[in-house]
Each structure stands twice: as C-alpha cells, then as structure tokens.
Amino acid sequence: MARTILIVEDSKVDRSRLEKLLSGAGYQVSSVDNGSDALAEAKRCKPDAILMDVNMPGMDGFAATRALRGDSATKDIPVVLVTAKDQKADKAWGQMLGAKGYVTKPFSDEQLLSQVRAL
Question: Which structural domain, as residue segments, surrounds residue 35?
C-alpha cells in the first residue's frame, strides 16, 4: 500500500512541485495551503508523514507542528519542515517542536525524497 504524505505549502508552485515529485515516487498525496487546514486534514486523512512549510499566512509551520504534537490524534505523525529558513536557530526550534526532518529551499528532488524515505 502506498504511503500517504500531507503537503502543507502556501505557494502553488512549490505545492505543485512537491505533489508531482511525491506522486511520481509512488506516494499518495494530499495537500492544503495553511497551518490550520493542516491540523484538520491530518486528523481526517491520518497521513504517514507531513511536509510542512514554515512561512505561511495565519498559522505558520512552527505553530502547526506544535499543535500537531499536542494532539493525541496527530502526535505520532512525523513532520518534515520544508522551508527557506536556513538558520541554525530555525532548525533547532523545529527539532524542539518535534519535527523529524528539515529541508531547506531550494532543494533537490533526491534531497527531499531521502528525508521522506528516512521516516
């Protein structure tokens, strides 16, 4: 059975690229464009992993990751942050919030897929 990945990305271009990349690699893909929708979708579709952008309007990826970790229904879903934020402090904060991986934009297809496969 194909694993399901939830993509949370407000940029249509980036979201489309991730959808094509992951579905081409054999994953089932679901996607939303903001953090609060990510919480609802994660509960609804119970994905095997979540690729989370950080910079989004409304609830950002850090806040959404913290909310996912704090909910018993979603706390065990691994989150990989996919973001242009490449400072050590951002990576450390992501890890503190419970993210299982961190990919900085721009990324190569192989870089992203290896993070997903490692989960």
Answer: 4-117
